[in-house]
């Protein structure tokens, strides 16, 4: 996500967020929460599977692990932990498809420590040969555990199937082969290429005033050097229509995991139709949940979920059922999607549910940092919670119906099954996938 090397400052969105771009290209976002007792400093780096290939797959995640193995100032994981835990704080990190997140959360009086701490362990990792070798076994074990967990593995099967040949179809953890091939030098090269001020967003949220937050940002991150010539662009993932449109992994599980996916056809996190996608998903969720759980009693849980990246995505309907009821469940799922009626009442209920979820999801300094940071990373524009709720409220019946008619299509659908299902049934199940 390219950022201009300019210096800009000012308040956005009725004093919701203070945003400034430092001369080195780092985007700094500050949200003042004077009622809070803590401060969260969150750094988002545009890195991850999107910018990896078959050989480098898993490098971003591996590097995330290595960054917690010690830095120049805190030369071991134990010393890193001790430094922040002694203040009553905690640290966190994860690797997503298009960014890696690092965060330190501390009591408000230690805000200056939070920014210095994130800067230190993210940009000054030691990455000793011993630690690199040790982490290889840990990440391999993590991949095995992920493959054994149907709730995780089913999503990976879906991504690989519908985005076949694109880097976003890769497993965030990598493969056993790519993990074995990762070296200290490869990790260092990845760090040099992606961990740049002009490729990152810093969010500070909590009980801190904007001037203090900006001063800390300049002190701790202002010395970083931008390298815009290292900018990497990857084309948007395209839905790959398979024949048959069904992928089955036969595995001895107690239930069959079913994912029915529809391509959003270029609509992602940065789409002006994001709220419409969310409303449609909520409408579908209520329909399939009530049918599978309340009416038929064949599933503990059924859902609809928009799985989006910046410039494309999937609208996914799913459920877990007893293997003997797999075929019935597919029929029911297809029928529920086809027969979905969008009434004024159901539209109102879906909107209210979304607005309520959004309110409950931003109750803490961590939550606000996430809410703000992802918007900046995906769109470069930040909406306040009130503005997000207003966008949901403004979604019209016509817009939802039009989106449904557009993406619920025979040409943009895929079905993934994980469980005790004969792989020879793929063509039979494919014939059930008729949408109008």
Features:
single chain, 436 residues, Cytochrome Bc1 Complex, Chain A, domain 1, 2 domains, seven-stranded mixed sheet, five-stranded mixed sheet, 15 helices, 12 strands, 42% helix, globular
Account of the 3D structure:
This protein is of the alpha+beta class and about 425 residues long. It contains 15 helices and twelve strands. Helix content is about 40%, strand content about 20%. The chain has a seven-stranded mixed beta sheet with strand order 1-2-3-7-4-6-5, sandwiched between helices. A hairpin with a 4-residue loop joins strand 5 and strand 6. Helix 1 packs across helix 7, helix 3 packs parallel to helix 8 and helix 9 crosses helix 10. The radius of gyration is 23 Å and the shape is globular. The N terminus is likely disordered.
